[in-house]
């Protein structure tokens, strides 16, 4: 019997001579649940919407500043 924190997936194709085995192990269920809880909190609800809006505004300003600086040096008079 395998421990609950590891999983093995075995897939055999009828047409192929190869067998595929993939293994995934989670170091700790507590770490995984903590990460999922933080991600769920930051990506859903009012806080998630606020994070997406702030991320969009920050991305806009980064692209704007890069475009401004690039345009300045491209169109600079010699």
TrEMBL record:
InterPro entries recorded: SMIM1 (IPR031744)
Any one Pfam family match given in the protein's UniProt record, by short name: DUF4731
Transmembrane intervals: 53-74
Cellular component, GO annotation: cell surface; plasma membrane
Keyword set includes Transport: no
Keywords, alphabetical: Membrane, Transmembrane, Transmembrane helix
GO molecular function: protein homodimerization activity
Domain of life: Eukaryota
PANTHER family, per the entry: SMALL INTEGRAL MEMBRANE PROTEIN 1 (PTHR38503:SF1)
Protein name stated in the entry: Small integral membrane protein 1 (Vel blood group)
Gene (UniProt): SMIM1
């Amino acid at each position: 019997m395998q421990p609950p924190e590891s999983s093995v997936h075995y897939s055999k194709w009828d047409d192929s001579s190869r067998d595929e085995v993939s293994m995934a192990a989670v170091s700790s269920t507590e770490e995984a649940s903590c990460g999922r809880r933080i991600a769920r909190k930051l990506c859903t609800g009012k806080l998630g919407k606020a994070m997406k809006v702030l991320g969009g505004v920050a991305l806009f300003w980064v692209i704007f500043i890069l475009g401004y600086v690039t345009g300045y040096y491209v169109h600079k008079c010699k």
